Amino acid sequence: MSNAPYRIHAVRYAHRACRSSEVFYGEHHDAPMTMDYFVWALTNGTHTVVVDLGFTERVGTRRGREFLRCPSKGLAEIGVDVSQVEHVIISHFHYDHVGNHALFPNATFYVQDAEMAFYTGRHASMPAFRRSIEVDDVCALVRLNYDRRVRFVDGSREIVPGVSVHKVGGHTAGMQIITVAHAKGQAVVASDASHYYRNLDERIPFLTLHDLPGVYRAFDHIRELASAPELIIPGHDPLVLQRLTPVADGIVEL
């Protein structure tokens, strides 16, 4: 059973209206568009892995996001009890991916060395990086490390059989993507290494980034790791809800 293929669920927990100039690097048309916020659950009957944590309602409201539900409620709809989850992968430290750590009292959190080093280092306070961070969340991860609940990865590592992380950088210093053994082949949860399908399809970086050439390398790495393009899941695209199979309101399955 431990080698069984995984089911991959995307759970939408928040939403916002935005402009294309806020989303695509070098975009000058300033067209209206939308952005969805997801967490992901990987399950195969033996292992459950949650990818990313979302933000809290307090943080989302302050930042002008439409908070739809606590991620824990969406996960509960597909049978995932956050209090029992043992493995949480944090793709990167931006506010919309690390905000609900307190909901996972039994989890070990997997992060890249480079991500923790950057956001506890000398440049993290610069405005270009600071605006994407909630300091309390970074401090919480530091405390979790002292509690021996953080596991560091430098590159690639298998977390549980069939689920691995891979450092790609680009969007942030330690941005990591996740490969998953799926019934149709190797899938990739890209998270913010590709916010939208268009980022990857047209090789257009997201506006917020750490290393521009690194974003392009990340696009290549995503394609190399995925068995097929339809097995790639971007981080914020509302089209995810259309291209994947509906399970419940705002919840879809690859």
Q: What is the approximate shape?
A: globular
Low-confidence stretches: none
What's the CATH class, please? Alpha Beta
What distance lies between the first and last C-alpha atoms, to the nearest angstrom?
20 Å
Mean pLDDT: 96
How many domains? The number is: 1
CATH architecture: 4-Layer Sandwich
What value does the Rg take, in angstroms? 17 Å
Estimated structural class: alpha/beta
The CATH topology label is Metallo-beta-lactamase, Chain A
Order of helices and strands: EHEEHEHEEHHHEEEEEHHEHEE
CATH superfamily: Ribonuclease Z/Hydroxyacylglutathione hydrolase-like
Question: Major sheet, described briefly?
Answer: 9 strands, mixed
Describe this structure in words.
There is one protein chain. The chain is α/β, with parallel strands linked by helices. The chain has one domain (7-247): Ribonuclease Z/Hydroxyacylglutathione hydrolase-like (Metallo-beta-lactamase, Chain A), CATH 3.60.15. 25% of the residues lie in helices and 30% in strands. It contains nine helices and 14 strands. Strands 1, 2, 3, 4, 5, 6, 7, 13 and 14 form a nine-stranded mixed beta sheet that branches. 46% of the residues are buried.
